[in-house]
Amino acid sequence: MKTLNATHHSAVQYMGFDCDVLHYGSTWNPYSVIPSYEERIPITWHTIPQTLVYWAPFYLMAYLVRRADTHVLRLLLLPIVLSTAAYCMYWFKVEDPRLATLEWGRAFMTIVVVAKSLDFAFARKGRFKVGEEYLPPLGSPAKSKTASSEGNGHAHPSGPQYRMLPQWFIDASEVIFTMRGIGWDFGKGVYVPKESRPLERGPFLRTTVLSMIYNYLVIDVLNSFFKLVPRVGTYHGGSIFLPELSPLRRYALSSAIHLATGFIIQYGMDICNDIATLIAVGLMGQSPEQWPPVQDRPWKATSLHDYWGKRWHQSLRQVFLVFGGRIGGWLVGPPGMVLGSFFASGMYHEVGMHMSDHRVTLFFLLQGAGIILEGLWKKTTGKPVGGVVGWIWTAFFVLVIGQISTDAWAIQGLIGGLIVPYPLSVTRRVLFPAARSLLNLYRSVYGGSH
């Protein structure tokens, strides 16, 4: 028996294995390589560059996806991008709990980079603009052949007229920051809201600056009122359903908080689009036609399909398709694509916030289920969901069911966290003190007369 064991051990070693390695491999926990929150490195001005290192291989990936015959190179680069992104995300932390929203944004940005890297790596021929027939070889500048823009739903880029950055950087940046895929092969079928701004470069940029200021002021006002709500308005967090209030007041307040949260997200996405527009058109020489509005009056939606598929922003459409929509569609077909995309959306908003409250994912899954029910209704009756009844149906899913998601965020302190810093808050530094002064003046003048 001893001879048999010795022979077996020698055979294993001969095959290139070692028993200790096999034992380690069978008991290794992948989570052990991720440091606990307490062991992570605090982010300071000195460590910020380290937290952004993953953008270097990511930019290289984006450059390669715009060059011909680079599929193998992109596949080889993918593990480097993913491992570097994981390192930058999980080996560092925002230590101040008041800045939890920055940690949230860091996680969201990393997830988007991972999704885009996966898409770039597995796009066999690369990523093409609409109208392009070929990609240039490595070392050559990209030469686009694109159609012009016409009508709603077709915003194709035109040739750049102003350039302030190197061509290779512009090529990579275009495919990175084109979130909706407007004018690209991966954006076919995406809904494009109609443009209301002038399309001449100068007036377009000035209007975009004014839009950014307006969106900022709206967010500042709403965020300032959040700070007045007990517990919810602090970074410690608290439920939007205040138990000390009567049921009517409790749900009226929770509905107001939920609605205001939705507007902050909406105007926040508008600000992000404004900033990206100013950079792309102002610095990179892109056409204003490439940067239409990001949303189309969501409050007018008369169905969930209308709300999520057209009126709400489509900036993360490709991310959710990569993480869930394509897999679900491959397994089950169109219903699987819908549920897979909304499951990915739920996990994005839950995991990205370092949360363990599955109500967030449940909310998004219910939206997908509602869209499937709308499809069954149309198939059965021959009529799509719409009109006043459709608006009420949509409002119930978004404004009533949606409160479970907002409550989860509020408990984690995300609503009361840093959104607009106090030194930059016009509302808290100017409007609120002015309102208090006017109220005190009113009381001093009219209070003594009674």
Automatic annotation (TrEMBL):
Pathway membership, UniProt: Secondary metabolite biosynthesis
Residue span, Wax synthase domain: 291-365
Top-level taxon: Eukaryota
Stretch list, region Disordered: 139-159
An example Gene Ontology CC term for this record: membrane
Keyword Transferase in record: yes
Residue spans crossing the bilayer: 43-65, 72-92, 104-122, 319-348, 360-377, 384-402, 408-426
Membrane topology designation: Multi-pass membrane protein
PANTHER family: LONG-CHAIN-ALCOHOL O-FATTY-ACYLTRANSFERASE 3-RELATED, OS04G0481900 PROTEIN
Family: Belongs to the wax synthase family.
Protein's name according to its UniProt entry: Wax synthase domain-containing protein
Organism: Daedalea quercina L-15889
Upper lineage: Eukaryota, Fungi, Dikarya, Basidiomycota, Agaricomycotina
